[in-house]
Amino acid sequence: MLNAFIIAAFSFASVSFIFSFWTKNNCFFRFGALCILIFAVAVFSGNKQITFFLYAILSVYILKTELDNAIYFYLVLLPVFPLAVSWSIGLPGIDVLIILNHNRVLLLCLFGPLFLRLLGRGIPVIDPAKSYSGVADRLILFYIFIECFTHFRDDNSLVAARNSILVFIDIWLPYFVISRSIKNVDTALVVVVYTAAMLAVLSIIEEKVFYRIYDAITLPMGEPFKLMKLRGGKLRTFASMNNPLVLGFFFALSFLVAVKIRSLLRCPIYVPLFLGALIILGVEASGSRSPLAANFIGFLVLIWWFFGRQFVKKTATYAFIFFILFLVWFFSGGIDLVLQLDNEQGTFYYRYELILNSMHLIKENLLFGSSPAIFLQDPILMNSIQGEGIIDVTNTYLFLMLKSGIFSLLAFLGIWLTVLRGLYVVETPEHTASILMSVSISTMFMLFICSPILFVPAYFWILIALSIGLIRRYSGGVIATSQAKNLIQRSL
């Protein structure tokens, strides 16, 4: 345990010093010191309540500073601390009403007071309908309503009420606070790369020494030891995420920011090259393949944006035509070739079979889906059981259709399309919108090939909040009107 703490502390301090040097900002060194302090208290005390008390003290400090600081602290503390650690306040009545984990503790301590503070300032809960943020607000609230409805459908009243509160905490609380209070999205993106660099260093070390550092840190806190996962004879590192796929997902988000970090920091060319290589090595250590494909898609978006938006429009047209031709080829016999070229683990075939085995469930429960306890026991879907004895719904959109129906899926897709449209029309310095757009598109692609496990949703809701915050800041959130209407307004 002591060795694990020393390695983690040294890695955090080193990365913090490097980022402080690059950015000429001591806040990154303070971030590293804070992480080491919380690690030390959590590990050597073995008491979750003491760590909870530290967060409460931090929230008091945050209330006296700028709102952005709370967001930066949240973005740092969320990935670097063991996310799977469950929390218990110790009060029976409270423990029944709410299930706490590391993310929710951070949200309640850092964002809870800020949520009330924003409401006290008269910030509207929902923006006007004629704005991108207003459209996103309404779609997110509708999505939350559908999720709460499904909880009351599947569970008793007490459990459903508790889960509905958790949905509000997990989705609306971070979205509202970040989108309304963020002033400098560039700094937030740099903070994300900073935390990714710390985890990448630890992941590389874990792979080389075949030893999971975070397990030694979480064991004193009551977390059970996790089974080793191997791929190709190599250890799949978890770091703090408790799952290699979630770690790879976080690295995928960070890589595209690292590629463009030169425009955010005004730093030498070797900085993005070094950070990009470091994060790619972290992805390789996690053994996750889908982040590499997602990074490729997002990188193409950055290239298109670099050549200009007219080029994007032309390329999108040709890409759409190519996609239609690909679908025709695919369903007219090309699928047989793809299945023959699939690897020994059946990566593509399993996803294809999963969709086929789910179609009858979608038709039977099209509007609002059905409980996972029901559709996961379906005899036809049981044909998709993996070697571990589970049905891994490796498609977030398919999972939404099965669980909550078409209304939930349309709301979810509508949120992403609103974000993409807003980022496309907004004019921002330093290409921040292009970075967020590339990350959003790669995230949408990743959600198509991975399941919404553990803390994957926490990160894509943060991404949506940062994007809406950027749109609100630089465009006022107003949806672009036609040129004729603009001319009429100018003449008046």
From TrEMBL:
UniProt-annotated location(s): Membrane
Transmembrane region(s): 6-22, 34-58, 70-93, 105-123, 135-152, 164-182, 188-205, 235-257, 263-283, 290-307, 319-339, 406-424, 444-466
Topological type in the membrane: Multi-pass membrane protein
InterPro entries: O-antigen_ligase-rel_domated, WaaL-like
Domain O-antigen ligase-related: start-end pairs: 277-413
Keywords associated with the record: Membrane, Transmembrane, Transmembrane helix
Chief localization: membrane
GO cellular component terms, A-Z: membrane
Protein name (Swiss-Prot/TrEMBL): O-antigen ligase-related domain-containing protein
Source taxonomy: Bacteria, Pseudomonadati, Pseudomonadota, Gammaproteobacteria, Cellvibrionales
